[in-house]
Amino acid sequence: MATLLDPTQRGRVILVGAGPGDPGLLTVKAVEALRSADVVVHDGLIDSRVLEIAPETAQRISVAKQRARHTLPQEAINALIVAHVKTGAIVVRLKGGDPFIFGRGGEEVEAVRAAGLPVEVVPGVSAALGCAAEAMLPLTHRDHSSAVSFVAGQCKGLSEQDWSGLAGQGRTLVIYMGVATAADIADKLMADGVAPDMPVAVLERGTCQGARAMRTLLADLGPMVAREEVKSPAIIVVGEVVTLSDAENKLARFAAQAEALRELEA
Questions:
Q1: Which of 163, 210, 248, 262 is the most buried (most CB within 10 A)?
Q2: Cα–Cα dist 25/190, whole Å
Q3: Which residue in 47, 65, 184, 187 is the catalytic one?
Q4: How far apart are CA 14 and CA 5, in angstroms?
Q5: Which residues form the Tetrapyrrole methylase domain (predicted)?
Q6: CA distance linking residue 186 with residue 191, whole number of Å
Q7: Within its chain, how far is the Cα of 239 from the centroid?
């Protein structure tokens, strides 16, 4: 693959990772792709400053997705991209994080290839990497973790999944899209043998305005998400590396508040 994108090649798709939110985390190649775009088909969580990099004349089309509600189904998004490319346009499909990590980028590449059209991929800083870095949370560490796994927390049939080898001593587990099922995830991990006192972190809106980094213990994950009113987008990190982060210890604060309440009631 060439180092720089060729703006003269018409009628193609460039699948671009926009990173976890902060426009400063865009790659040089991502910026070049945006500057060459005739059409930008983008996710809903893309920062407006990123969209402004595209030419004023570029058409911007939002295909925002939310839990249980999609502006367009995936098949319609694929068809939309193909239709614009067939007009000779340079279509930038702009996706949060990295297109190939829970971004359905593989499906879109398949659709474009099936239509016989050219496509290239510009990787982005994934949510796991960007949010963990902001929280000073190393996903690997010589003394604590030599393996990292990424899973989707919204997967169907969670109780039937075997997560027994994904978290525990010497391993880090990163869970995307797990806020709504946080309590079930904690129960699942403990049922599969992960200790209830395993440290966990919740990284909410990482690299964006209003970001929060919170940590507690696995047994308290569901209650913490509820009492802190955590909202998506957020990722959950499970493992000893969590103790190295700057994440606020919400279990300690909750315990202190509970003790103060007990003293008032005495």
A1: 163
A2: 35
A3: 65
A4: 9
A5: 12-221
A6: 8
A7: 18
Residues 224-233: tens digit of each pLDDT: 999 999 999 9
CA distance 89 to 74: 20
List phi, psi (to 5°) of 141.
-160, 135
pLDDT in tens, 163-194: 888 998 999 999 999 999 999 999 999 998 99
In a domain, 159, yes or no: yes
Assess whether 116 and 43 both reside in one domain. yes
**What are the residues facing 147 on neighbouring strands?**
171
- Domain range holding 67? 12-125
Q: How far apart are CA 26 and CA 100, in angstroms?
A: 16
Residue 11 C-alpha from the chain's centroid:
29
Q: Which position among 6, 22, 38, 43 bears the catalytic label?
A: 43
Give yes or no: residues 87 and 103 share one domain. Answer: yes
Question: How far is the C-alpha of 66 from the C-alpha of 50, rounded, in Å?
Answer: 20
Q: Which of 93, 125, 157 is the last residue of a domain?
A: 125
Q: What CATH number is associated with residue 59?
A: 3.40.1010.10
Split into its structural domains, the chain has a count of 2
Active site residue 6: no
- pLDDT higher than 70, residue 71: no
Concerning whether 65 is annotated as a catalytic residue, the answer is: yes
